[in-house]
Amino acid sequence: MKKVSKLLLISILIIALFSSSVFASATTLKIDGSTKTLTTQLKEGRNFVAGSSLKSLGLDYALNQNTAILKNKEVEFKFTLNTNKVKVNNTDFTLDSKSYKNGQEAYLPLRFILETLGYDVTWDKSTNGLKATKQSKITYPVTIENNGITYTVPKEPSTIVSLAPDVTETLFAIGAGDKIKGRTQYCNYPAEVSAIKNVGSMTDPSIETIVDINPELIIAATHYKEEVLKKLQTAKIGIVVKDSPNTLEEMYADILKLGAIVNRNYEARALASSMKSKVETVKMYTNNIKNKPTAYYVVGTGQHGEYTAGKDTFVAELIRVAGGINAADDVTGWKYSLEKLIDKNPDIIFGSEWDIDTMTTSPNYKGLKAIKNKNFKAVSVDLFSRPSARATDEGLKLLVEMFHKDIAKKLSF
Q1: Given a cut of 50, is residue 10 above it in pLDDT?
Q2: Residue 297: which of 342, 245, 334 has the closest Cα?
Q3: Which residues, including other chains, have CB under 8 Å from residue 339's CB and lie 6 or more apart?
Q4: Which pLDDT score, from 0 to 100, does residue 1 have?
Q5: What is the structure's pLDDT at 374?
Q6: Within 13 Å and on the Cβ side, how many CA atoms surround 232?
């Protein structure tokens, strides 16, 4: 019986995904100890809710020409209809699908709204509807656990030095970029970072420059030196150190941590939800593809050896989501070998322009079919080396374009 139910659910999702029809229905939602009935439409595999239905959740709703506005005392959503654009507390986000107008009603992505409000959304078998479970409210002091060490942020920091590019990108993505007063030389996105003081490298930043900035908080990631952090702690500057995420789930959790640190919880949840929805949409298209190309991501090559993304990296996960097979799924970490690469003989190779030039001009790689068939692509490695929103917003889509051009044309982000 369970198998039949699962097959039925899959069939419904497939029909919804590939059909241009819009199904109107009443959806039951268990939330905050009560049961609500929402007017929804199923479109392209997504549940869209009538904006006026959300008044029952304590949200004010207004439709102003091409903009649908939802708000309460703490958060405001502004959806630009017939696009995948939305502002949450005036911070811009892109979604996997477009909100739209049907008659006099705006239909908005239900899961995104609930997740941004701080709910975990699941299917409730008892009601054949949705269940929204409220997450614990985050208040200061915020504590972050990392490698057995507890870091405490007593209040919202007004000034920050970021010692990692993914931290810089994420803080900007959740509307906290104005807090960054110092960044590393590798922090090159978004364009606004060029106006922020450069404190040097990730491993050996200028302590004098950081002390001169006198930030309330320093956020460091994987590439740091203990002795540098100890000197900064001596200067009585608050520090949070975190490991870089290795999976997409860890990436979402990392964004929520940064949101908690800088008091941008709604924006952080919006960003994580938007990333999840893009991954889920791509999966719906690629999960059942039979002919999946093998792909090899070049992290390093040539005289210093072969380096790539092993099976336990988020890059390998992106390759799988995009409908490919990671050629280096036989290893963990980043070290590989020329012998293994030749043995795997991948269909597609992608990496930095420098690494691709090395492979295409060296006799060591001329036997690889990806090289012989000119099935290689130079990409911005920032998209695949930084666990930030661009990994899904741009990197994932780029992989889909490489592997399955027909599917890429169907994506709305």
Answers
A1: no
A2: 334
A3: none
A4: 47
A5: 97
A6: 30
On whether the CB atoms of residues 279 and 395 are closer than 8 A, the answer is no
Helix (H) / strand (E) containing 151: strand 149-153
Dist. CA 331–CA 383, nearest whole Å: 22
Neighbouring C-alpha atoms within 13 Å toward the C-beta of 303 = 0
Structure tokens that stand for 52 in this block:
């006026």
Phi, psi of 53 (to 5 degrees): -65, -25
**CA 252 to chain CA mean position, Å:** 6
Taking the complete model, does pTM exceed 0.85, yes or no?
A: yes
Q: Is the pLDDT of residue 18 over 80?
A: no
User: What are the helix (H) ranges across 35-150?
Assistant: 110-116
- DSSP character at residue 393: I
Better-predicted residue by pLDDT, 228 or 262: 262
Rounded CA-CA distance 257/265 in Å is: 9
DSSP 8-state class, residue 164: S
Which DSSP string do the residues of 350-388 spell out, in sequence order?
Answer: EE-HHHHHHHHHSGGGTT-HHHHTT-EEE--THHHHS-S
Give the 3-state secondary structure percentages of the chain, helix then strand then coil, rounded to 5: 35, 25, 35
Burial of 278 by CB count in 10 Å (0-12 exposed, 13-18 middle, 19+ buried)?
A: buried
> φ and ψ at 181, to 5 degrees?
-110, -5
Please give the average per-residue pLDDT across 273-287, as a whole number: 97
SS3 227: helix
Task: Give CA torsion, residues 324, 327, 332, 337, to 10 deg.
Answer: -160
pLDDT band at 23 (very low <50, low <70, confident <90, very high): low
Q: Which long-range contacts (CB under 8 A, 24 or more apart) does 222-228 make?
A: 222/164, 223/164, 224/163, 228/203, 228/204
Do 115 and 106 touch, CB atoms closer than 8 A? no
Triad 346, 349, 350: Cα angle to 5°: 155
Model confidence at 19, pLDDT cuts 50, 70, 90, reads: very low
